[in-house]
Amino acid sequence: MFVLENGMRVIFKPTTVNTILGIVCVIEIGGSYEPLDKIGITNFTQTLLLKGTEKRSAEDIALELESIGASMGTATHEDYAELTAVATVQDAEKIIEIMGDVLFHASFPPEEVEKERHNILDAIRLSEDDKFYFTYKNFRQLLYGKTHPYGHPVEGEPETVKRISRADIVKHYKRYYRASNMILSVVGNIEEKKLVSLLKRYLPRKALKPQPKVTADKSLRRKTETEVKTKEIEQGFIILGYNTCDVRSPDYIPLKVTSAILGEGMSSRLFVHLRDRMGLAYSVGCGMPSRKLRSHFFAWIGTKPESIQQAKEQLLAEFEKLKTEKVNTEELNRAKKYIIGRFLLDHQTNLRQAWYLGWYEMLRLGIKFDEQYPELIEKVTADDVMRVARRYFNHPAIEILKPSPAKK
């Protein structure tokens, strides 16, 4: 890794496996850094990056990418935003030039701002019809509270998206879209000297200091709480979970293994016990997102309306078992192999390799964590699983979605 004069951190991993160039630019601004009255502004900004620059229209960008068979995309997450690109090595200069233009010279045409506003609002409305999305959104707000940024979706709330102006977006862009606030990760068969030359040619030379970001409340909730909502649906849906830790905690890796034991894959406990044996679930699973601030461990189940109470009790019982009964060696090893296998398979493309390196650097875990992760998973013991279960699985937030009385 090296740092350019403009303050951008650059991660470069050479490979001779193919002639594809995978590039990921991680911008250290996301949903967790937004003021409550501007929730969704980073996502709004991201959707507009490819809609025009000072010298290119949205059509120009699309046609130029198409002419070299390249692709470029944006995404927004709780802790960061990203711009990704894939091209052949022979088109390295062109793709880096376009990326530099998009990242640092976006123009935010007024008509495109309004188009994207409608698109975002339509997407939010559509997602409200998805049982998992609707329940998970309300679960996070119940768990974190309305003032914590993790309690809100990164795409924003309808009222905040409607309120965000073009001037707000431009101000947000100028404040945070600076080279010193970015990590560029590149994987491909290109000489480092050539890569550095292209970056210096097409990226800003001036170093601008990163601007202070909004800080979030990091306090944990310490009470059991249940919320019930109704909707015009056929089945019931439950999400139950707990506050946990950030990615730099020593408990992070054991919790990842615990998640695989409990509800990831067809051999996991929730799938075998609640779905196959008891017939309670038409969908079931669990997970723990990786977050800079304190994350959460959650499990979900879709079930028949008349089985909601039983399904909730069985979910809680599975969490209690982790606190009182050690997992056996076979189950522990299955979970480890599941995690490591999925991790390695997700590294098959240069783009995904670049993404992992940039992501780990953004999380302050360092680029070597990408190599260390499988080893750390292997070291987790049954005692570790019981320890983290006892530490964190004590005060659940429970979000229940039921069919409305008329539908029932």
In the sheet with the most strands, the strands line up as 1-2-6-3-5-4
Which fold name corresponds to the CATH topology of the largest domain? Cytochrome Bc1 Complex, Chain A, domain 1
Distance between the termini: 59 Å
Taking the sheet with the most strands, its summary is: 6 strands, mixed
* Count of DSSP H/I helices: 15
How many strand elements? Answer: 11
- Overall domain count: 2
Low-pLDDT segments: none
What's the mean pLDDT score? 94
Write structural notes for this entry.
- There is one protein chain.
- With 408 residues, the protein is of the alpha+beta class.
- It folds into 2 domains: 2-202, Cytochrome Bc1 Complex, Chain A, domain 1 (2-Layer Sandwich); 225-403, Cytochrome Bc1 Complex, Chain A, domain 1 (2-Layer Sandwich).
- The protein has 15 helices and 11 strands.
- It has helices at residues 41-48, 58-67, 92-104, 110-127, 131-144, 158-163, 166-176, 192-202, 252-263, 269-277, 308-324, 329-345, 350-362, 369-378, 382-392; strands at residues 2-3, 9-14, 20-27, 71-76, 81-88, 182-188, 225-231, 236-243, 283-287, 296-303, 397-403.
- The strands form 2 sheets. The protein has a 6-stranded mixed β-sheet with strand order 1-2-6-3-5-4, with helices on both faces. Strands 7-11-8-10-9 form a 5-stranded mixed β-sheet, with helices on both faces.
- Helix 9 crosses helix 12 (329-345), helix 9 (252-263) crosses helix 15 (382-392) and helix 11 packs across helix 15 (382-392).
- The radius of gyration is 23 Å and the shape is globular.
- The model has no long low-confidence stretch (mean pLDDT 94).
